Amino acid sequence: MNTLWQFPPYLWPLVGAGALALALALFAWRRRPAPGAGLLALLMLAVAEWSGCYALELASRDASRALLWARMEYLGIVTVPAAWLALVLQYTGRENWLARRRWLLLTVEPALTWLAALTNDLHGLLWSQFERVNQGPYTLTSVTHGAWWWVHFAYSYLLLLFGAIILVRELLRASPPFRGQILALLSGALLPWLANALYIFGLNPLHPVDLTPLAFTLAGLVMLLALLRFRLLDIVPIARNVVVDGMADGVIVLDAQSRIGDLNPAARQIIGRPPAEVIGRPIREIAAGRPDLIEQYHDVPEAQAEITLGAGEGQRIYQMRISPLYDPRGRFNGRVIVLREITALRQAEEALRRREAILETVAHAADRFLRMPDWEREIPAILARLGEAVGVSRVYIFENHRGPDGELLTSQRYEWAAPDAMPQIDNPDLQNFSFVQAGFARWVETMSRGEAVYGLVRTFPESEQEVLAAQDILSIAVVPVFIGGEWWGLIGFDECRFERIWLPAEIETLQMAANMLGAAIHRSRVHHQLEDQARFLALLNEITRIAIGTTDFQNMLQALADRLGELFRADDCYIATWDEEQGRPIPRAAYGPMREIYPTLQFPPGEITATESALRLGRALAIEDVFNSPYVSPRIAARFPNRSLLVMPLIVGQQKLGAALIAFRQHHRFTAEEIARAEYAAAHIALAVAKSQALMLTHREIARRKQAEEQLREYARQLEARNEELDAFAHTVAHDLKHALSLVVGYAELLDTLFPRLSPEQQREYVQSIVQHGHKMAGVIDALLFLATAPRQEVETGPLDMAHVVGEALSRLSEAIAESYAEVRVPSTWPVARGYAPWVEEVWFNYISNAIKYGGQPPRVELGADFPPDAPGMVRFWVRDNGPGLTPEEQSRLFTPFTQARHTGKGYGLGLSIVKRIVEKLGGEVSVESQPGQGSTFFFTLPAAENLYHQDTKARNI
Length: 958
Known about the structure:
The protein is 51% helix and 20% strand. It is α+β, with helices and mostly antiparallel strands and 958 residues long.
């Protein structure tokens, strides 16, 4: 091992230099986004390779191995000069000097030199002689340089000299923070350079040892100092003349006493004075016109604010930044003021803000106009939003129109004014304003082409200035409003506070607002036209529908009057028919306040009326002033509140039916379109009236015939019912009455024949039988009479005290209840119904009587009432028994006269039929619910009274 390697004392500094260079390369590589970091890493990596390979050369005893490491050294040796120059150029902001082609040229010599080192055995251009010599106990290398080595020497030193010159020039004008960096870079190059010169010219005390790699140890320490102390790679200087003088921002350098020490051309332009007048003078003298800036920033070392300089059109806005300057010892040395003009930016931002606000207002207005076709209702709110968005004093709308002689006039219709502006909406000079007479012919010519008129009023012609200045207008923008290619009017914007400069983008946006307004007005016109047309067509359809579907002549005329009044938006509308025999109109129907009065009016024959005049002429009459018209009698005109009339004769063929009159209370000028529509509508109304009259006569005849036929059918039904009742009556008389009468006659004959031989008890028995059967016959006769007369009787109904009515019925049945041991359950309260008490008592009598007759043994009878859900406004009363129940077939015969559910011999079949006729006569119904073996419940309903319940004293069990 000792025969291969050796460790001279000067070996270890080389190892340290290589390690330090490698560490610096890694440190720079991690900061490679900084300018020059990558090249510094390359330079230090080349130094590390050079130092490491040279250390291995010195440590090698073997000549071949030492030659190998000597050749490898040249990879770092040839890289160092080129990397050094590239680092200097990039550090000083001259990296554009090294374009791609120059980089290639810069690498040609290093590549050839390293190739010469690798192939030196073939040509000896780099080392003409390479030998090993002993120096004490160590064996070192001694070389004799060849021709190419001197080429490389000259090339390398030329690059080093060029980079050093650039750094020296930068050092002379660099600020304090960067002077340490430049000195560190110069030292890092000059130390190895000096050591290499000593080696080359034989002045090295350790010859043949090359001290250049050892010098890199000191160079590495200097680089480390530059990295840590002077923030190399963190801040990189750029040439002042390239940056500061070329800056668009104004730069002013102040010393510690706030005196101007330097300023760039942009700052000189802002100040407006040459450098000789300002350099060396205090800043407060230069800015004497701005005491606010002097007081606020006089002693402020660091600040950032937005300031405004100048006035009027020359006013400019700057973003000012004040930064402190310190010397190497950290002492305050002055300040740097940087002024960046942002006037255009602020103007653009303001214009953009206004444009966005205007566009938002336009979008809002468009949405409102789409939702509300009546654009005039939305205009006040939209003008307010538009005025606030544009930021002006007034916004207004003028509408063009023609004067009596055809002259173009305009009038102000709407206006919004800011709180600090004087409104002009009531200015009479702005109504019927003549463009030409007032000296605004230029406006007519410009806006007729669709162009806006805008600018400072003081730049306008004198005739225009006089009118505008009277309204305190300093700046104005007026945009035309077009509707369907026609110049409708204008929308204007006044600024009364300052002379506002209107930007083309603002005018373009305002034109959009005007276009939107024009579209809204056009849409509103079309909408109203379509609406009127739809209303007119709807009227015609309604007239046709009324003529077809209305059989009531008066109702039809009233409906037609209402439709006509709504269609023409008239104050009143009248329809009169014509009495040909008497020669006078007959008022029929009216729309408006005269609706109730008009049909009651009468016009004497022979007096001039609008109806008579229109029928006589056979055409529509447009009467604009009824008080000065030959077509209306003054006496009749005075009876109506109307001033203007449109009279439409109703004529079909040769038949004069009457007239329809559309009336207005104020003076109204009828247009040709109104008259044409009225005549068209009158033709339909005439046909409807004629058809209605014909239908009315036909319907009357048909109704008369139907009524006669219905009466005949009703008579037939009544006759049939009477015949059925007569048959049943004959059967009852023949059966019940005949049977009872036979018994009475039989008992009477027995009494007459056997009376002397009969005992008093037998006589009493026969007499009681005669009386019982006589009462039965009387009951049958009374029931027959009630059944026959009840449908024709008229009684007065009222609220019933149902507890009293039920009590009377139970009182009549007390004997039957006692004989049958019946139990009758009565509720404590009763709903109040309407009816006729005697009849309702008869209903309860029959229901309870049947329940006792056909109930169980003993009978249990329950009375009650409720409100049926299927019959609102009615009260349902019921009687429930515990009898054997009824079959469906028996239930169907219950309420038929002269029938019995069961032939028990207990009745004669008239009670339930009487109940049915009574309840139906009182507006109610009867029904039954029953199942065999479960008893029966009989119902009847009556109309409910207002007081739903009547409180009885207590529940009763009888």
